[in-house]
């Protein structure tokens, strides 16, 4: 029994040594059996999405992968063993712009959305298995560059400042390698019809002056810095002659217009004087008419006043009662007169106030009428 037990222990040790030997020979526990492969350095345009292609390998059976990690050397170091990570399979929601599109067997591809300059740098992938010390970091990592578009000028002719007739080429390029880049051009922020990495400007004129920039097609929002072209114009003798002639013609035209204007002004002056005199005559007639009306009104008022003064006011007339003796004398006289054919009456008359209301003045002109100076009496009573 003891011998069998000792044999069994020896066999177990031999079996363990054999397994270790086999693992070593197969490369499972060696560097040859573990590794990470990256794509070439990546050049991405700002605002675009960048894909970092990646594969990894290890002894798969019976050691599955438990965790996958991506880290940036901008915030991490060495073997990517410590935080922070740009991607951690234990907390994928915290990755923001980074998305793991691989798996836990062989694909370790990483997608970076909306690439910015801050994303530039080196990235490394790390995976961990359930085997003790069974973990690996792909070192060195892969480099991501954010493309910067730049424009430059190459002068083909002329020296010093740009002048009319000189020729230049404007070249658009990026600071990293892109596959089949296509460029567009702008002048003073306006899109030009030309395309390509070179903009050729032969025989410059003043119209070519301006600020030029370029951008990658489909990424026009991210243009290069502007380069300014200031083309100086020159004035040949013929141009100077034309300019002088133009100035002379302009001055002649101004002089002719001034003469025509003065003549028209003189021609209009008599007409304006006639119109002014007519206006003064009309105003005088109107003023005279008003004065005549006022005079007529004063005359009418005076006539009305005289008429009112000529009206006489009398009291009622009544006869004074006679005494009895006078009645007898009168009776005798009447009898004598009747006999002789005469009929007389001797009466003493007294006048009271007779009131005649003045007539209201009529509107309009009053015509003076000669009135009879006869006296208007009231009723006369005789007793």
List keywords for this structure.
single chain, six-stranded mixed beta sheet, alpha+beta, disordered C terminus, 21 strands, four-stranded antiparallel beta sheet, 383 residues, disordered N terminus
Question: Could you explain the architecture of this structure?
Answer:
There is one protein chain. Strand 9 and strand 10 form a beta hairpin. It is elongated, with a radius of gyration of 67 Å. The chain contains three helices and 21 strands. It has 383 residues and is an alpha+beta fold. The strands form six sheets. Strands 2, 5, 6, 9, 10 and 11 form a six-stranded mixed sheet that branches. It has a four-stranded antiparallel sheet with strand order 15-14-17-18, with no helix packed on it. The chain starts with a helix and ends with a strand.
What distance separates the N and C termini? 203 Å
Taking all residues together, what is the mean pLDDT? 74
Task: Please tell me what the overall shape is.
Answer: elongated
- Decide which structural class fits the backbone: alpha+beta
The amount of beta strand, in percent, is 25-35%
Order of helices and strands: HEEEEEEEEEEEEEEEEEEHEHEE
Helix content: 25-40%
Q: Describe the sheet with the most strands.
A: 6 strands, mixed
Instruction: Round the Cα radius of gyration to an integer and report it.
Output: 67 Å
Low-confidence stretches: 1-13, 15-31, 310-320, 342-356, 359-383
Query: Counting H and I runs of at least 4 residues, what is the number of helices?
Result: 3
What is the strand tally? 21
